Amino acid sequence: MWVLLASVCCSVAVSVLLKLTRRHDIAVDQAIAVNYAMAAVLTVVLLRPDPSTLLQPTTSWVVLLALGLLLPTIFLAMAAAVRVAGIVLSDAAQRLSLLIPLLASFLLFGETASGGKLVGIALALVALLCLLVRPSTCGPASHPGWKPAALLLAVWIGYGSIDVLFKHLAAAGLAFSNSLLITFLLSGFSLAAYLIARRTRWTGRSMAAGLLLGLLNFGNIYFYLRAHQQFPRNPTLVFAAMNIGVISMGALIGAGVFREKLSLLNMAGVVLAIVAVLVLMPR
Predict the structure, then answer these.
(1) What distance in Å separates the CA atoms of residue 13 and residue 220, rounded to the nearest whole number?
(2) Residue in 166, 191, 161 with CA at minimum distance from that of residue 181
(3) Nearest Cα to Cα of residue 237 among 187, 275, 282, 207
(4) Closest Cα partner for 210 from 2, 45, 48, 41?
(5) pTM here?
(6) Which long-range contacts does 162-168 make (Cβ < 8 Å, 24+ apart)?
(7) In contact, 246 and 12? CB cutoff 8 Å
(8) Within 10 Å of residue 54's Cβ, how many Cβ atoms?
(9) What's the angle, vertex CA 28, arms to CA 157 and CA 163, rounded to 5?
(10) Which residue did the predictor score with more confidence, 144 or 225?
């Protein structure tokens, strides 16, 4: 069970680190770029991918390139959401993104929607609406009222789309370790190229934060995979523990440690998000 806890802790720790970047004068874009280099090295060392399989004609390079651009873009959106809307709402919105691949399976791939899944989808959508409604008194006065909602919506759509693209690669027969390595490399290259084009002045503090961010980011993925290996006959446990654990721990740390202000509607959204995860658990 410790691997599940480690995965949850790594996921929430990523949000905490993003929350602290401004306080410690860390350039978040530089940190995210370095994060992908660190994550790629750890992928090679621990997951041992076989990049030669990418030379097969069936490799979906369009999807890989799309992921290489989408991953850093959404990571930056997540960083902005954590800064503006807070850890509680950002982590909940990220976890509710599981709804998008579920909707894709119904709308694009012809999967039949059961009554339970329809109830779960409805609850997840209501939860998302509760998260997005954020009175101006709950956020910094310097941010327009629409900005937190727009960033949370971008996080929800972005991470859901990333999940759909990874599922497409898996369906095409590309091993997860291979797709993970190439997307980390493409993501790091695309963001680094953007920063170099802007003549960014790199700082040691930001690069060091990026190494830690990469360790936590990869740790979240690695321990999640290990949890599935430890509980091969109970994926429901892993799915529920991961999503509910991140939402709950994010709420405790965001509200308890960082004193993030939430409306009653926001708190109801967090509770509904947990209920929706329970209803949507694979059976």
Answers:
(1) 9
(2) 166
(3) 282
(4) 41
(5) 0.91
(6) 162/67, 162/70, 162/71, 162/74, 163/97, 163/98, 163/100, 163/101, 164/100, 164/101, 164/104, 165/63, 165/66, 165/67, 165/70, 166/67, 167/101, 168/60, 168/63
(7) yes
(8) 16
(9) 25
(10) 225
| Percentage of the chain modeled with pLDDT above 70 | 94
Please tell me the distance from the alpha carbon of residue 205 to that of residue 213, in angstroms, as a whole number.
12
Tens-place pLDDT, residues 20-45: 999 999 999 999 999 999 999 999 99
Tokens of 33: 């770029």
117, two tokens = 């899944």
Residue 144 backbone dihedrals phi, psi, to 5 degrees: -60, 150
**Tokens 């493409």 belong to which residue?**
186
Q: Report yes or no: 3 and 223 within 8 Å, Cβ to Cβ.
A: yes
Q: 192 and 33 in contact (C-beta within 8 Å)?
A: yes
Q: 47-81: per-residue pLDDT in tens?
A: 999 988 887 877 899 999 999 999 999 999 999 99
3-state SS string for the chain: CHHHHHHHHHHHHHHHHHHHCCCCCCCHHHHHHHHHHHHHHHHHHHHCCCHHHHHCCCCCHHHHHHHHHHHHHHHHHHHHHHHHCCHHHHHHHHHHHHHHHHHHHHHCCCCCCCHHHHHHHHHHHHHHHHHHCCCHHHCCCCCCCHHHHHHHHHHHHHHHHHHHHHHHHHHCCCCHHHHHHHHHHHHHHHHHHHHHHCCCCCCHHHHHHHHHHHHHHHHHHHHHHHHHHHCCCCHHHHHHHHHHHHHHHHHHHHHHCCCCCCCHHHHHHHHHHHHHHHHHCCC
